[in-house]
């Protein structure tokens, strides 16, 4: 199991691109060596963004490319 937190953003670059800042948090869990489940979200601290955004996903390794390369 892993986790991460991040403070991200940027200052105003021009009149059409205003400044923004978000606080991001995410969690990952690997029930098997080939499967990783993850979810996270961010809170908008400043800027014209949704106040909260949530995301979730999974990664599944269909091949072990490192072992395939070492066999040659």
Describe the SSE topology.
Blueprint: E1 2-10, E2 20-32, E3 35-46, E4 52-60, H1 65-70
Antiparallel strand pairs: 1-2, 2-3, 3-4
Widest sheet, order of strands: 1-2-3-4
Strand content: over 45%
- The end-to-end distance, rounded to whole angstroms, is 33 Å
The helicity comes to: under 10%
Largest sheet, described in full?
4 strands, antiparallel
Describe this entry's structure for a reader.
With 72 residues, the chain is mainly β. Helices cover 8% and strands 60% of the residues. It has a four-stranded antiparallel β-sheet, with no helix packed on it. The chain starts with a strand and ends with a helix.
Task: List descriptors.
72 residues, 1 helix
In short:
With 72 residues, this protein is mostly beta strands. The protein has one helix at residues 65-70, and strands at 2-10, 20-32, 35-46, 52-60.
